[in-house]
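Write out this protein's structure.
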Amino acid sequence: MSVTVVGSLNEDVLVRVGRLPGRGETAIGRDTVLAPGGKGANQAAAAGRLGTGVVMVGRVGADPAGERQLAALAEAGVDVAHVRQIAGSPTGSATIPVEEGSGENLIVVVPGANAQLRPADVDVDPVRDAGVVLLQLEIPLATVTAAAAAAGGTVVLTPAPARPLPPELLARVDVLVPNEHELVTLAGAAPADRSPAELAGLARALEADTVVVTLGARGALLVPGVGPTLLQAPPPVRAVDTTGAGDCFCGALGVALADGAVPSEAVAVAVTAAALSTTGAGARAALPDAAAVARLRRELPPATTLRG
């Protein structure tokens, strides 16, 4: 099993609030916590908890925050030899208000050193040789495209933050993993409440090999290029904080695919891992190991086949 993650490393500033603020509104926070984050690093940490042979490719600043990000990934079992510290650029950061009770959040990212990861930096053996390469969009788009082109294995892309994607990148993606908002953006559709069947229609319009739409508390939607669409509901958990749940999903999905799981099985593993990740504060406080995922899988509802 080998998984390489090419992407961002950030220091998260978590702020607990009674209610998420609206546009132009001021909210009073309860407290502030610093935690390791970044979509790429979160995916790598989740994968590292679940398996071995996980490599991170990225950039951090030559600062204390960068040292903390490297230490946190190494503690999660991730090889950080291809994460370089860049003098003169601060480690990326994200400010995340988290709503008490629901665990819902908002995220504002400042890229910092992540913007210094260049296309030439990702044409390396861990990308070329990995069974699965996980990508996101918190690094320059040209670098994401270069990593997808260099990858010799399965390419999994989380299209976040949401933006239109060039055809040359989508053509190299084997599994696209948007949430509902990202799917709507990619499809060029108007925001609206949609049923799983309607979301599946938008996913099929993208003409990707396989699309997995993460649906939060509703689980995930598997839309293969050929075959029926499956809706996988999550197991029952008490959510404390949904920060990073989508990243945990992708990390677990990558590990399962690298281990040879078929897409429906990989999605079942990923939904279970993501549900467990919401039971603690922050993006990584409750990342599960393989044993925890196996235990909770016994409570996972069967997937539902969507008609039409």
